[in-house]
């Protein structure tokens, strides 16, 4: 049973889709100022986005292949990672024009009737993380994968948009309120 005004829904009810980058070669070092880089999967963990977890793109050919930047107001989700981190997600609080997504990270493309910050809390909740981890497949214990279909069909209770916005005030310090960061 869902609260009054809420609907039983799925993640796909809030999104137009998911976009991803491509596998781009880069140098594993700290980016210099204004240098372009491709994110590592470690850039997204436990509701935290780490833009410094990137490899420098030094080849013009590789740079031309990079297409998707992390966009303000979106969520980045790891589609491939360890069993513990597959499905990890983080809200993007600003635009990152010098960074690009690899093929192992998705970015939300939201519908107008959805609040991505609210959805980021839901996706980082213990229940959603547990469910996504159990859906992950792969023969290697160090690398598990989820499909777009599995993520998009994940069942969630969805409040009306004003309630999504209102509920964010309950969590002024971010996702750490729902799930503490691990060291």
Give the CA-based shape.
globular
- SSE series: EEEEEEHEEEEEHHEEHEH
Radius of gyration in whole Å, from Cα?
Answer: 16 Å
Task: Kindly report the average pLDDT value.
Answer: 87
Beta-strand fraction estimate: 25-35%
Description:
Helices cover 20% and strands 26% of the residues. The longest helix has 10 residues. The termini are far apart. By secondary structure, it is an alpha+beta fold. A hairpin with a 2-residue loop joins strand 4 and strand 5. The strands form 5 sheets. It has a 4-stranded antiparallel beta sheet with strand order 2-11-7-9, covered by helices on one side. It is globular.
Notable traits:
single chain; 183 residues; alpha+beta; 4-stranded antiparallel sheet; 3-stranded mixed sheet
Write the layout of secondary structure elements.
Blueprint: E1 7-10, E2 15-20, E3 37-39, E4 44-45, E5 48-49, E6 54-56, H1 60-65, E7 75-78, E8 80-81, E9 89-91, E10 99-100, E11 105-110, H2 116-123, H3 126-135, E12 137-140, E13 143-145, H4 148-152, E14 155-158, H5 161-168
Parallel strand pairs: 3-10
Antiparallel strand pairs: 1-14, 2-11, 3-6, 4-5, 7-9, 7-11, 8-13, 12-13
